[in-house]
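Protocol step 4 of 6: record predicted structures for both targets in the notebook before any analysis. Target 1:
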Amino acid sequence: MRRAPAVTLVLLLLAATAVGPATAAAVPADDGVAVTSPSDATDHTTREGSTAPAPDGVVHHELTRADPGRVRVALEVGVTTATTAFRVTLPAAVEVTGTDGFDRAEGTTYEWDGRTAAPGLTYRAPVNRTVGNSVRFAATDDWALVDMTDVDTAFSWRSRGGTSYERRFAVPNGYAGAAMAYLGDYRVANASAAGQRFTVVHPTVVGTPVEPATYAGTLAGVAEGLSVGARDPAVTAFIAPPPVGANGGEGGVGGLATGADLWVAADEATRSDADGVRVNEPIFVHEYVHTRQNYTLAADTTWFTEASAFYYMSLAPYQRGTIPRERFGERFRVAESFRDATLTGTTDAQYRVRATKGPRTLAALDRRIRASTNGSRTLQDVFRRMNEAEGNVTYAVFRSMVAATAGESHDAWLDRHVAGVELAQGPVPDAYPAPGTTAGPAAAEWRRGDEWVPLATTPLPAGIPVAVRHPEVGVVVRPAGATTAVSGPGGDPATVRLPAGEATLRVETFYGRNGTTVMVPTSDDVDGDGVTNADESAQGSDPYDADSSTATPESGRLDGGGNGTEGAAFEDGPGFGVTGALVAGAVLVGWLVVRRRHG
């Protein structure tokens, strides 16, 4: 679940207005380039707050626990010598408990008196928040999990010459991220990957059977497989004590992301299976994906936010081998009541439509993009274009991004499945081969008369449609100079037309980047009766039966590829191994399908 960061509006412009980034003055943690080991996780207990004055040019917010439901904020401004006026506006619901050098102007707006070197305010801010039955943020007698937007301030100033101000947060009795803070005793661990540093803050008031470093390592591992741009240099994940997330959050996810920070409910952070207790990776993936969404969406594309998070929360753990195949399809089941919904027409109230029909549709779109680009591009490339876009990403813009990524239009398909009600074909686990596993059985097949035969059975007929399929997984068959054929999972056949002589086919699974190149002999006259396959098809006779033709053979016609059954030549594509043995002059070919992570 994602909540977009609130936009802070400065109400009064004196001369120039600037709201700096929310940089966190956090308690130092062990600095590890890789994952810190469990024994390295650092414990932090509460201590007295800081009394050092705010440096010049800093608007300093210090958070401490107050009473249940609220936190105390001590605000201090390091006024620069060039500043002639300074105003600060507090959140509407706060209770001001003290001022020093600030006078109330109107409402919750206070103005500097122009004399005090380090003016300040203290106030108590309510932080409890509940959506439906789910507690999102809370403050108790012992701890608090805070959304910074509930305690943050807007400020403006007038100065002689240039000057600037930076917003900072400090939690001397806890840990501050960029968008969230935890107040209370905690343990912390770090990991780094893909240009990002991950910090996991684990409160000591709640126990989980997994060490903080393991959570951090999970996030780092997931980050390496998601190449969509919009990487924050630092991501902070909080393990949230009950009652936060006790009811799973909207959609039953059990987490929340805001900006570069996220929390995962302690009760949802781990799961148990036959192999023991481990990190509940899908929920961490879901919330991490939300931290990578840096686009602005129009009303007809807002579905993408949850749809993409739910898609990758199934795909990434399965490809990493951390969830079993039987759990893979959980997020792609669509209730009968949602099947007639259009994604472009959904609202936030239709969360479950976006969370089920949305990821199912994106899985099918990902497959189509991979098929169009020979596996060189994926849905992640569309995701990256969205993050890089200026202005709103509308459905029309989204369609154009898909076309630009795929190298061909998919508008008709999108109009049926995204803007229309048609349900996309659901993905199957075999289309996502895990590392080191085979796709099996070995070969794709083509239909010769009334039977399916291995692709190694040649020649294939030229000049007429040839049905191809894979018995278990979807394949893309790419004849040189001809139309690509896509065979869906479950053995649904597709059709290609091959040139005479020899055809070059590339056979690849939907979700693999690489494939196996197959040199296949073809023939204009596959049954050797002197009548072309095309002529036999036109007259209604069987091109595979020499006795069925009623046409007169063409004099002097050269056969394009020979007759009988020959061995097809296979060449390894990158990342694929070809296993085969020469048996009775025929080649038995298998593909070792290697899964490549999204990149």
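Target 2:
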Amino acid sequence: MDFTPELSAFQGLIVSVDHSHCFSRLTSRGGNEEKIQLVLESISKFLKNENYINENGVIDTMVSKTRKFALYIVLNSDLKALREIAELEGVIVVIQSIPVIPRYLMCEMLWNLCMENFACEMITYCYPLLAVEIAGAFVENYKYYNPIKGLKKLHNLSAACYSLICRLHCFQFDNTVFNNLLTTSYETLQKCLKYFSSPPNSHRLNILSKDELYTYKGECLETFLMLIHECFTYFTQEVNSSCSYDIYRSTYKTGCFKDNPPTSKVCECPNNAVSECVNNCNILLLDVFQELVMDVSVDIFCAWSEFEVDGKSMQQAIGELCHKVRTELLNISSVAEHPVVSMIQQMARKPEVISDIINLTETNVIVQNINSNIEDKSSWIHALVNKEQLCQHVDLISVIDTHIDMFDEQECLKLYHMFTNYSKNNTNNREIVTRVSIKIFQHCSISDKHKLLKEHFTESQFHDLSDDEHFHSTLTEMFNKFVAVSDADYTEVLNVFLQNPRQVFNKIFILAEENTQLTNTMLKIMHFLKDYANYYYVAETEPCIISIIKKNLDEVSESEVKQINLVIFLSGLKKSDIIPGTKLLLLIIMPHMHKALLHKDINKIHVQIHLLNEAYTIHELLEYRAPMLAMLSQVLEVVRWGNIKAFVPRASSTLQLTLNFQKSLIETYDNVIPNDEGDWLRIRLKRKNMQPLNNFYFRKLLGGQSSNFFQSVSGMHVDKDTNPSEISIWATQILSSGTQEEWCVVWDNLTRHIEDIEVLYIFHEALRMIAKAVESTRTAATRACLLYCVQNLVYVIRYKFFQGPLTDRHVVNAAFSLSKFLQETNKEDVEEIGSRLMPLFAFLVEKKNLYTSNVPGYFRNTNYSALVNRAFNIEESQENGST
């Protein structure tokens, strides 16, 4: 326990009240009534103003803070046991921090400031020597109370003392201390129980009328019956050896609480001393009970039939309690033979089984019983499960709707069947019955929900219950929770899936595209809908989820991020077997690829190729190898821009993705190609008259081609004597339509026979010719192609020409040839080309200690001088001055 701002404020209040009304003088009630009332009013005002309590007691959100206040009052009282624990870490900081509160005043504070429950908790869970002294103080204080108004306090106090005794075996003290604890605790409980039969201030009973006296005796017996039920329920259950609240654990001395206390039932307690004491307490309870029963005359018992308590007579209420308690006692061998068990048989009354009479009771009476808050309200509500023709009564349907949380899963299952069967066969009340049936469904178990969904969607056919504004609002709210709450219950998706499967699938796919986190979340949600992947709407010819996927692929976003997320999501559905791989391939990918090829839609082709790569291993596609390769040849022809005018930015990445996939697939042939596959493919490939660059990748099938990419495509045999101009012409044609990887392959092919510097000049010459062609037909497509080629050249210089240790030879030749090319570029392209050159300049800056050449000097007469100077962090004036 430590000081918090709230506890500090409470401390200040107590000190202030003590200044006004000295606590040390308030040791008893006699003559101090007015002062005590003022003290209580001052503290109560503070607690209400600070919203700790209201007229109904402690406010729910303030329970833990108010509990701390209650313990603070006790720790600063004059109880002797506090001396033993004063040095404990959790006690020393708060003890003696306010004027000492006399035990009498301590009890008045806790009993009158809505802290009575905390007092009982302390008796049960605090350090036992402190707990038993707290109990003794409250028992002593009870002598001031009017017996008519103190029965609840006496009940709570007795129950707390009994619980304390039952928990003592969890502690370890020397025998003397332990035996004294047991004795003192038993005697305290004994005093409590005696107050039931011989209350303090009993003279107050003498002034009661006969009816008032009989009512008091009934309330006393009823309270004691509930006490017996509570104590013997505790006696037959496993003892809660742990401390329910850590704040009370702070009062434990080190080592007093057993490391591994037994958790057996109280009636099977392994500690003989505690077991004997508890059994003596049980006999004591029944002896006092017997006294109270014997005090009930025939006149009193008959009079109770005239007194109404919570909608039933006092005689009935006590009779039903007697039946309940007697049944419990008969099941406990150690007390079953006690005389009182037989004595209460005549008073006992078996409660009416409401479910047996529910169909004999008028609807208005049922509603009245439920709305009047009688004790049996809950029984009447649960009995509605057995009510015949329930759905014909709107009032009863409304009761179900209002109290749906009270029904267990089995009851909800029964109600759901009742409601849905009615709505199928009746039009009367159908709207409200359907609405409430949806609500009932939400309270069924997960396994039952799946069973009900399969019953609802008979023959695997979907149909919608809702598609209105309220449904869409609920759907949005639910998915917002799935997104925002990390431990959200994803099974709740079944609640909206019942109402409109299509909209749920739609929502899932829309969100799955947004970001990686949502993709993963939606895959988890789809796991709960796996069983319905083959379900379809009556008016459609394919499963709903297939229709949704096709729709999303038809309307695929231009956003690369969303496309990636969609691909990952669909791949996840396939890997989870929510959509079988065969179905995804044959019903979705291949038809969409065919459509995209017809319309030359590079964006959609890219998505399908990406999906093939992501969702399938090459081994999974072997049975479709031949038709897949034929399709890939078509893809290559569409996505490979034959000239710079046909270039689109997405084509390059799509082409590379397709080539990677094609190479992996064709390599599975190893050295032997089955005749049937080979012949079938050759026919189709030859019909297509493919571009030479694409043809190269099918050389294993077509034969007669070199493995040297440049030589195969150009037909040239390159050696050191080959005319560089001829090589440049072919390089221009290849590089202008090639991927970055193909640029690197051409570099490797040529550098086998020619010096790398000469190859660098060939590449620059090829790029210069591409740039000239762009200027002669300058469009968005040709310009984009040029920028892509510049990007590829930068990559080749950085990772091919600059291989190995960087030298002045490399730097000078790269800077010279690059500056020569840049002198001829269009001024409009400076910013775009410059941004693609920056990675190369950044590399040169990073490695400038490896060479001595003045790189910025080579670009002085180009439009890129300022950009290069910035990269090398050189001021323009400084650069000019160094020339």
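Step 5 preliminary note on target 2. Residues 453 and 498 are 7 Å apart (CA to CA). The mean pLDDT is 91.
Proceed to step 6 after PI sign-off.
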